[in-house]
Target: Phosphatidylglycerol--prolipoprotein diacylglyceryl transferase
Amino acid sequence: MLAYPKIDPVALSLGPLKIHWYGLMYLIGIGGAWWLATRRLQRFDPTWTREKLSDLVFWVAMGVIVGGRLGYVLFYDLPAYLANPLLILEVWKGGMSFHGGLVGVMLATWWFGRRNGKSFFELMDFIAPLVPIGLGAGRIGNFINAELWGKPTDVPWAMVFPPYSDPAQLPRHPSQLYQFALEGVALFLILWFYSRKPRPTMAVSGMFALCYGLFRFIVEFVRVPDAQLGYLAFGWLTMGQVLCVPMILGGLLLIALAYRHRAPRPSVA
Model:
């Protein structure tokens, strides 16, 4: 069994101001995505300036934050937030939904594309390989917060999370680290190398949706579902898995349509 590294969720305290690691992970994810985007910018569109790219990153980041928070409220704990709407503002305590964030990113991308002469999937194909940076950072934030841990297990790398997080004090799967490895590292490598060669429009977006959906669906088997929801059906189906099924099917459909109807675009890696 591995020892859980007890990291204070608060990275820095300045009087009443507390800077949480969870929030810093979002800054790292957004900053890393912006840096990588600047490296890919000239091959995506040589006429775009860094200022325009910064605008895109800003609106996509807003989509992540607003969509992620509202998605968690709607998908995972609506009664609690209806009872106390001010809880919506307490983002430093966690409570973000990837699927809600994805919807927010899609809306922001559609809006930005219309204003800048780019199709929705042109931009989504450009953005998709950047997303795993934020996903990986977010999972590290979950790990530091000692939240979203896995089921009890006797595997050698099991961890006992702090009592304030897990009163039962059982050895558990560190599912946050599984998701970091799959959604962060593996997904980044897949999309990075896949997008290095010319691909039809929609193909990179489809590969992102397919791989993320599969990775998340698999990890949900060893991750404890949110207490307020539990399992939705069959004693194993979680909300995360339900939300991933449309992603998997949509990813397959996008890839099929991309290779059937579209000519390859230049590589932007």
